[in-house]
Amino acid sequence: MLKFKVVHYYIIPLICLIVWWGMLIAMLSAWSLQGKPQYKWITIYQNPIYISDIGATNLQPLFISCVGFQAIFFIGTLVMEYFLRRHKKLQPYVSTKQPIFAIFSIVFSIISQLGILFVSIFKTTAYHSVHLSMVAVFIIFAFLTCLCNFFNSFIFGNYPQRLSPNHEKVIFGKHKWANLYMVSFFLKLAWLVGAVVFAVLFGWFMKDGKDSTSSIFEWTISFWYGLLLIFWAIDLFPSAVKHYQVRHPDEFPEKNLANVHLDPTNEEDLAKLEQISPYRSPTTLHDNV
User: Fold this and answer.
1) Which end of the chain, N or C, is less packed with Cβ atoms under 10 Å?
2) Highest taxon of the source (predicted)?
3) Do residues 163 and 92 make contact, with C-beta atoms less than 8 angstroms apart?
4) Contacts of 184 (CB under 8 A, 6+ apart)
């Protein structure tokens, strides 16, 4: 049975997921329980209506608070991944370009999350142009965030020989792409393609005045967004496994994580033990990616 520290960094994106999906379900349920009303600013019958229309009602406080809360955890997920890789609590970067991509993804995520926060603040009924502009900012910079983050996954998968020798077994074939990092990259790429398609269809049908169809794709892409957070939770999960192994070396003698005789029950020895990373890279950072 896989053993890991239950409360660890991987729960950050999961909290974000719960808040985001919880908000969407609460808003859609509230609208349905109210009898699917067509608000006075809706000129053509819609089923369902846009998220922004529900968010412009008395549910706006819920909209703003949940969006703001999830934004903190969304950005925090990327910051934590950068921190864990830099401090060798996760597989360290294997290219000098990876930390740069990670920093760009954090910057882009801040802009994108500010965009969605302003979407919730500037409601569509009073600030329609600003509202739509912020939706565009959110979509564009969220795409750039994913692009940088996913490219880092590709680098890990494309250079499996650079991974730490103490890394969990991720290679399952002879081809260099036959590893779990590359599987993760292709799953994320499929997610990104799906997100782009949904976003384009959302805008296309809105432009054509087919608001019911457009809103279906808006709700779809909003729930689809949550799958990204699951991918990121999986990315952070190995840190929880390593944390458990470091603190319980007697249960994993074959790992020989520290290669030194330290007592994990002693606070000073435990501090030293945690400084000895289970991820010892066989090579220095490479620049040719």
Assistant:
1) N
2) Eukaryota
3) no
4) 153, 157, 231, 234, 235
pTM of the model: 0.87
Nearest-CA neighbor of 258 among 241, 270, 267, 240? 270
SS3 letters across the chain: CCCCCCCCCCHHHHHHHHHHHHHHHHHHHHHHHCCCCCCCCCCCCCCCCCHHHHHCCCCHHHHHHHHHHHHHHHHHHHHHHHHHHHCCCCCCCCECHHHHHHHHHHHHHHHHHHHHHHHHHCCCCCCHHHHHHHHHHHHHHHHHHHHHHHHHHHHHHHCHHHCCCCCCCCECCCCCCCEHHHHHHHHHHHHHHHHHHHHHHHHHHHHCCCHHHHHHHHHHHHHHHHHHHHHHHHHHHHHHHHHHHHHCHHHCCCCCCCCCCCCCCCHHHHHHHHHCCCCCCCCCCECCC
Amino acid of residue 115: G
Angle, helix 211-247 to helix 128-158, in steps of 10 degrees:
40
Backbone Cα Rg of the chain: 22
d(CA 14, CA 42): 35
